[in-house]
Amino acid sequence: xxxxxxxxxxxxxxxxxxxxxxxxxxxxxxxxxxxxxxxxxxxxxxxxxxxxxxxxxxxxxxxxxxxxxxxxxxxxxxxxxxxxxxxxxxxxxxxxxxxxxxxxxxxxxxxxxxxxxxxxxxxxxxxxxxxxxxxxxxxxxxxxxxxxxxxxxxxxxxxxxxxxxxxxxxxxxxxxxxxxxxxxxxxxxxxxxxxxxxxxxxxxxxxxxxxxxxxxxxxxxxxxxxxxxxxxxxxxxxxxxxxxxxxxxxxxxxxxxxxxxxxxxxxxxxxxxxxxxxxxxxxxxxxxxxxxxxxxxxxxxxxxxxxxxxxxxxxxxxxxxxxxxxxxxxxxxxxxxxxxxxxxxxxxxxxxxxxxxxxxxxxxxxxx
Length: 368
What we know:
Layout: E1 4-6, E2 9-11, H1 17-28, H2 37-45, H3 54-76, H4 80-97, H5 106-124, E3 131-138, E4 141-148, E5 157-164, H6 173-176, H7 178-183, E6 187-191, H8 202-205, H9 213-222, E7 228-238, H10 243-251, E8 257-259, H11 264-277, E9 299-304, H12 311-322, E10 328-333, H13 348-364
Parallel strand pairs: 5-6, 5-7, 7-8, 8-9, 9-10
Antiparallel strand pairs: 1-2, 3-4, 4-6
Helix pairs in contact: 3-4, 4-5, 9-10
């Protein structure tokens, strides 16, 4: 295996774009504690992308099991910090091993059960301890989240909610962003749309036209807690499919700040469809109603120059959005500074520093 680095990030297997993108994500998360570069390179050396993904699944699962066993052994000897760092890496490796499977695949379900067990052990031994929470949403389909309280908080603390696109797993936030919240005195609620089990019922949920209502359900849950300041709640919507978070924020005036795509992906999809269906349609500029939806809190949009949407196109959509949304900002990470790949996979640290500084400033400006 040879790793080539270009403007869009690492290209490990030129004939297998999906594996290359996932491997870039794994390498980028090494600096966040989600992997070790040496372990990633060792696993990659054993992978043959031409075998239909069998070696990918087998080798990442093997490394995940090694990390999990190492964590459990360290914990038994009383070395909690070593156990925690290995549980975090095991979570990421388990997720990587199963990323190419359908939700109904029994291999994926088995891997995810083990991954969640690692996450639970990790948050249970934090100081202060985290907790697994259940948030009512659809009938017989509650959301599940990990709540990590702010360290040494003697009063109601501000909180950041992290929600990804519909297929994004909340476990990734434990190593990707948790330390940025903790270091700034913020509590963290990581939640996804995948429910509390590992079944394929998610497939019935993802196509719902009202995914944005889950955002208000999360806020409803937070208002029941006595350890958070409900007037200082920020939300981070992660992933290209997180326009549902933007829609949810636009419909709920209780958020103090939001980092999401601002509806840009919805605008792009609508413009594309209108162009396909009716190239001369006068409706092409309507952007799916977004100019009529008012955000009632500051909003930050971050994109990479080498993301799936061209930066010039993103800028054009943003300027249209800004005409009706005065307190909205756009940050595009250029290739020369990294964090320029889609989802900032090539350097999530740079993006997270910018994002959490921005959120902390907005939350601090709201009276406690």
